[in-house]
Design brief:
The complex is a heterodimer of chains A (139) and B (137). With 139 residues, chain A is α+β, with helices and mostly antiparallel strands. Chain A contains four helices and five strands, in the order βααββααββ. Chain A has helices spanning 18-34, 39-58, 92-95, 109-116, and strands at residues 11-15, 63-71, 76-84, 119-124, 130-137. In chain A, helix 2 packs antiparallel against helix 4. Chain B has helices spanning 23-40, 57-72, 84-93, 106-126, and strands at 6-9, 12-16, 44-48, 76-80, 101-103. The chains are: A alpha+beta (139), B alpha/beta (137). Chain B: It holds the Pfam family STAS. Chain B: Residues 2-113 form the STAS domain.
């Protein structure tokens, strides 16, 4: 392993600034390479992580990202958890609609990120923060 | 905050993005480019993203915005060097990069801009809509 990342444990990164979003991308790429995702899948999961980490910062007011190498017995993968204790999402269906935004962006972050990963789970409620878990499996 | 350098080559501004940009750096590039277009009077902008291993919605929007700003300032923008994996991901993300011209590499991007200028010149020479209609004998 040349990455220097201990894959046995989750790697945590706090998200409190623009630069932290860059660090999340780099961390996710390192683990995605280590679990041998294809180049296209690496690109997809890093892009999804970039969108979701930015959401954690912009809408959640900052939070943490945890990256873990996982294995389901048949294939390895990468699991990423984005957690914030911000205002939460009031209308989840609307938030997951392409083009819907409350932040002046393109409205593709959440909906686009979901398309780029294999598993997508979101726990949120008004005032309860938001916790998004995504997994990308190696093919 | 890091800044992306802008090089002037003849009538073209060349931006080769070599770092993983923070959102602030991307916004600063937009502003720097607008200023350089006006200061230099360049008619073409080439943005080389060969080194970018992802383009997310923020950078995608920045590229569209740069293309729009430069158009208003009488310059054409061509984005060159997009990696195949980035193109696949962009489409799946749902980003269409409307209004952005692309070319495979810097050389083809420069050709594209040169061809455009020739067409523009011919158009002016032959008489565009702003010129007086020819008086018939």
């Amino acid at each position: 392993m040349t990455s220097g990342v201990d894959l046995g444990r989750p790697q945590a990164q706090t998200v409190g600034s623009d630069e932290d979003v860059v660090r999340v991308r780099q961390l996710v790429r390192t683990v995605a390479v280590a679990v041998k995702l294809s180049l296209v899948d690496q690109t997809k999961v890093v892009t999804a992580a970039s969108e979701l980490a930015r959401n954690t910062l912009v809408y959640g007011g900052g939070g943490t990202v945890e990256v873990t190498a996982v294995d389901n017995g048949r294939k390895p993968g990468i699991k990423i958890v984005f957690a914030d204790s911000g205002p939460g999402i009031v209308d989840l269906d609307l938030a997951l609609t392409d083009g819907y935004t409350t932040g002046g962006g393109l409205g593709l972050g959440l909906s686009g990120a979901r398309r780029l990963v294999d598993e997508f789970d979101i726990q949120t409620a008004p005032g309860q923060g938001t916790r998004i878990t995504v997994i990308k499996w190696s093919r | 905050m890091e800044r992306v350098p802008i090089l002037k080559i003849g009538d073209i501004l060349l931006v080769s993005i070599q770092l993983d940009m923070s959102d602030q750096t991307a916004v600063a590039l937009q502003e720097d480019l607008a200023e350089r277009i006006v200061a230099t009077g360049c008619h073409g902008v080439i943005i080389d993203i060969t080194a970018l291993d992802i383009v997310d919605s923020f950078v995608g929007r920045m590229l569209s915005t740069i293309a729009s700003i430069s158009k208003v300032l009488d310059a054409e923008t061509v984005v060159v060097g997009m990696r195949p994996a980035v193109a696949i991901t962009l489409v799946e993300l749902g980003l269409s990069l409307n209004g952005i011209r692309t070319a495979l590499n810097v050389e083809r991007g420069m050709e594209l801009i040169a061809v455009d200028r020739v067409h523009d010149d011919q158009y002016e020479f032959e008489g565009g809509p702003d010129t007086e209609p020819l008086a018939l004998p």
